Amino acid sequence: MPAIETATRILIHGGRVIDPANNVDTVQDIYIADGRVIASGNTPQGFTADMEIDASHRVVCPGLIDISARLREPGQEQKATIATESLAAASGGITTLCCPPDTYPVIDTPAVTEFIRLRAEAAGNARIVTLGALTQSLGGEQLSEMAALRSAGCVGVSNALQPLLNPLILRRAMEYAATFELTVFLHPNDHWLANEGCAHEGRVATRLGLRGIPEAAETAAVARDLALIEQTGVRAHFCRLTSGRAARMVARAQYDGAPVTADVAIPYLYLSEIDISDFDSQCHLMPPLRTVEDRQQLRDALQQGSVSAVCSDHQPHEPDAKLGPFPATEPGISGLDTLLPLALRLVDEHSIELADLIHRLTAGPAKILGLPYGSLSVDATADVCIFDPSASWQLDSSTVRSNGLNTPFMGWEMKGRVTHTLLAGQLVYALN
Amino acid sequence: MTRHSLQIDKNGRLRHFLCISGLNRQLITEILDTAESFAGVTQQSVKKVPLLRGKTIVNLFFEASTRTRTTFELAAKRLSADVLNINITQSSTVKGETLLDTLRNLEAMHVDMFVVRHADSGAAHFIAANAAPHISVINAGDGWHSHPTQAMLDMFTIRRVKGADFGALRVAIVGDILHSRVARSQIHALNLLNTGEVRIVAPQSLIPAHAESLGAQVHHDLQTGIKDVDVIIMLRLQRERMQGAFLPSAHEYFELFGLTEEKLMHASPDVTVMHPGPINRGVEMDSEVADGPRSVILEQVTHGIAVRMAVMSMAMSRKEGDTG
Questions:
Q1: Which residues on chain B are in Cβ contact (under 8 Å) with A321?
Q2: For residues A287-303, average pLDDT
């Protein structure tokens, strides 16, 4: 794995170590050898470091895990590639990325999974895991070969944003996935109720004459999916909740013991329907940005933990994709560069405690994905993110590392900057 | 980029004409007054003024239209401009690229104004935001969003028939509000003119979410909706609304929401009936009403020319010696 500096024994000293998986929040040293954490606090006997990282006045936490990032390869390399986006991830403190199956070709065969794995290895900047397609070609009709996908390394199965119209097929897909203990990742959006809309059905869409997607498109899908989860016993994850009502439905199901988790994407915690008022295509997202109240309720759900992960929902685009009348533009925001700084802003705004936030960026998503990362436990893989929580910088075309410059946060003052990223004990990013 | 700064220059003059919201009362009154001065021109035997001589106006229609395009063309010709009609039905290519490419090609021909109709809401804003600085954009209808010249010609018609005191008026807009760019623009314009009461009347399936936030009272019953109103604006009902499960049948719609002489009894005795056209006789209204003494439907068409002349000349006059 290429690294910017090769060292086998690393000492990170003087940092505030926040490791939510182990309930740790204290200033201590971290010792790394052969790609693993070998100790924290006291120096292990006979340890001499090849490399020392001064982390004083900085936070040391597990490498971030982004539960949804589209890297556009294979199939849409005009937008971005695994090499460019994994580099952006490393500079953002993200060590593990989960790629949804809606690539071209779709991740419905081991060959595509293998292709992505090889590309990620060649790039060497971040670990990339994949979700396999729930149905062949995401067509919603024939089950994919889930056992083969699992063997090839897929950490779950999903139909991504493609509709699965027939509930009987969804039921059987869930049953089949449960057979192999695969988590099903669901995007709750009722295809018929969504009705090819492009904005939240509310005051702003009414004024702008945009075809609306009602909240019920999400809640009706969550209700249907919850019924089938209960019926089949499959472990399921709701991706990118947008409404407070859906978040409460999931929390209630969790309380009742259903094996369900949920995530939100960071733009939904800062933007709302109001941001599309000028037909700003940078705020064209799918599912759509909803109300200011929903935004607050999503923040509450993240704080309370019923939503246990926050992700970038990274969707880099070439500039042309956003040049057109609002409904004709491609949805999505480029988000790898802003995942951590925007998340940290939640702490500044007293929406969540720092340790809880780090949990939603590390141990939370690790558990959802069933991955052994997201902690600094002794013997854990040494994925580490070190950031300066008080460093200010501006998001502009020179600071965005992703190929996608499509972000409505352009020009925003960001607080919190990654200084070092370690992937399995290798330094893959260091701020100059 | 805000809507305000996009269509109004720093001196408060009209730069583009994209939507009613974001304009102020003074400006739309100026449009009405200017239209009034042009109304005389259209009645002269020589129906031309040389205001836009040497200017090239492109009617860029991505959606079929007869009436609107024709009146824009006539308005431009009466201002002595050269007019180019381009009809582009949506192709299967990526819309954004096609639109921007089309724009750049036409710009290269040194045109001065685009009159745009497009099926996507926000298309006119997009074109205005991306056009060369010397080009003015007039929105001739974008998606369900806005059709500001139609709204202005309706205000012009109301003002001519009812006088300038909109505060004394009750106005009901009846029909498919959900899909109507005309209704949205009319509601904004009526509110800017401080209309006493603005009502919208339709079954709930044809009313957009939070419609009251547009600035209108929502009614689901025609009789109460038009009770004592001074103006009724009927909207066209597209036949495909039956397929989309918005309505059970044209028959039931006409029974409940179609305007007949009998139902008109609920309105003010001197009520004025309007329709942006084209009418579905026997669906939105009886022929008896459409052709009756209260109808000003054909006057609306005539006024459309004067109003479009006003908007075009105002947007272009700003250009002389002012690039702000």
A1: 96
A2: 98
Cβ–Cβ below 8 Å for B209 and A321: no
- Which residues in chain A touch residue B97, judged by CB atoms under 8 angstroms apart? 320, 323-324
Task: Pick B3 or A71 by higher pLDDT.
Answer: A71
Which of the pair, A286 or B46, is modelled with greater confidence? Answer: A286
* Alpha-carbon gap, residue A125 to A172, rounded angstroms: 38
- What is the predicted pLDDT for the residue at B3? 44
| d(C-alpha B10, C-alpha A412), whole Å | 26
Q: Are A171 and A164 spatial neighbours (Cβ–Cβ below 8 Å)?
A: no
pLDDT number for residue A5? 66
Q: Tokens 């086998």 map to which residue?
A: A8
- Choose from A318, A323, A410 for mutation: most chain B CBs within 10 A: A323
What is d(CA A65, CA A57) in angstroms, rounded to the nearest whole number?
23
B133 preceded by cis ω (within 30°)? no
Question: To which H or E segment does residue B15 belong?
Answer: none
Q: Which residues pair with A418 in a beta bridge?
A: A387
- Residue B97: pLDDT band (50, 70, 90) is low
Q: ipTM of this predicted complex?
A: 0.93
Which residue of chain B is at minimal alpha-carbon distance from A324? B96
CB < 8 Å to B118, chain A: 325
Work out the minimum CA distance from A62 to partner chain B, whole angstroms: 40
Structural domains of chain B ordered from first start: 3-146+302-317 (3.40.50.1370), 148-295 (3.40.50.1370)
Which residues of B are less than 8 Å from A325 in CB distance?
95-96, 99, 118, 120-123, 125-126, 142-143
Are A202 and B210 inside 8 Å of each other by CB? yes
Quote the minimal CA–CA distance from A392 to chain B in Å: 26
Instruction: Please name the amino acid found at residue A259.
Output: P
pLDDT of residue A1: 46
Tell whether A329 lies on the interface with B, counting CB pairs under 8 A: yes
Q: Measure CB to CB from residue A206 to each of B1, B126, B211 and give the nearest one.
A: B211
Sheet of A384-394: strand order equals: A24-27, A16-19, A59-62, A384-394, A413-423, A426-430
pLDDT tens digit sequence for B34-76: 999 999 877 777 778 999 999 999 999 988 888 899 999 999 9
Say what the pLDDT of residue B323 is.
Answer: 47
What are the structural domains of chain A? 66-82+92-313+362-369 (3.20.20.140)
Nearest CA in chain B to A321: B96
Q: What mean pLDDT value characterizes chain A?
A: 96
Q: What is the predicted pLDDT for the residue at B99?
A: 82
- Are A278 and B123 within 8 A, CB to CB? no
**Does residue B242 have a pLDDT over 80?**
no
CA distance A322 to B105: 20
